[in-house]
Design goal:
The chain contains eleven helices and no strands. By secondary structure, it is mainly α. It folds into two domains: 56 residues, Arc Repressor Mutant, subunit A (Orthogonal Bundle), CATH 1.10.10; 166 residues, Tetracycline Repressor, domain 2, CATH 1.10.357.10. Helix 4 crosses helix 6 and helix 10 packs antiparallel against helix 11. The termini are far apart. This is TetR/AcrR family transcriptional regulator.
Amino acid sequence: MTTAQGARARARQEITAAIKEAARRQLAAEGAAKLSLRAVARELGMVSSALYRYFPSRDELLTALIIDAYDSLGEAAERARDAAADVPPRARWTAVCEAVRGWALAHPHEYALIYGSPVPGYSAPETTVPAAARVGMVFIGILRDAHQGPGLAAPALPADLRPEAARMAADLAPDLPPEAAAALVAAWAQLFGLVGFELFGQFNRVVEDRETFFRHAADRLAESTGLGGP
């Protein structure tokens, strides 16, 4: 790459970052449904035609923001997992849950973008899947470590759920038993339900000591997946 090409690449990266940052400010002020390329261009002092060279449509800009949010959340979960590498799997699980909550409280509008109401007229493409899977892969890894080490004690499945649980295990984590796969999916949904309830105000006048409540609930979710230990 020549010096000129390198300078152009850096300039493109800087402008792309500025566009996304302006879009995040618009998300905070107006919500994802009202995201507008023209409004972003106006804030940056660009003509719309220039911005379209970076993001040809609103949906492409939304996709970039969604991938960034999932990646940022995934990085937070992975850091918490790595920092808790020397503790038992159940404590590692709780540490990751707390990191997910911490990220959501620090990035409420980005959390709403990926776990809030769907944006009318927008359908997330397959390119968002790898980033969206990062948190789930962290939890799968924790269960895998426990399964290969001290073992899992996931609750037994009713007969009519076993085929679906086996399918989930085959798709998500073939080296985990179906009981663990089904419990993991349920715990994953409940975790983000807990975070969403806190972030979107459903706990107002219900839960006051939310940090302690969340830590307890996250530990119970760990137990529900078969992770043992105190």
